[in-house]
Design a protein that fits this description.
Number of helices: 2
Order of helices and strands: HH
Radius of gyration: 13 Å
Helix content: over 70%
Distance between the termini: 12 Å
Number of strands: 0
Length: 60
């Protein structure tokens, strides 16, 4: 994997994680520190899955 492509993949994962984390924060009522870390971890896994799904569909 080239450096430019790796950077683009990392940026895409971070954008997905930010979007999913923001959505999660809007949907919960209280924010405890443990819930925050769990939510960020789940958002990271969802972001990785979204990037993998996009690549599978586009054939790259």
């Amino acid at each position: 994997m080239r450096a430019g492509r790796l950077g683009a993949t990392i940026a895409e994962v971070l954008v997905w994680q930010a979007a999913l984390s923001a959505l999660w924060l809007v949907l919960i009522s209280t924010v405890d520190p443990l819930e925050l870390f769990v939510g960020l971890g789940c958002a990271l896994m969802g972001a990785a899955a979204a990037v993998a799904a996009r690549r599978a569909v586009s054939g790259r």
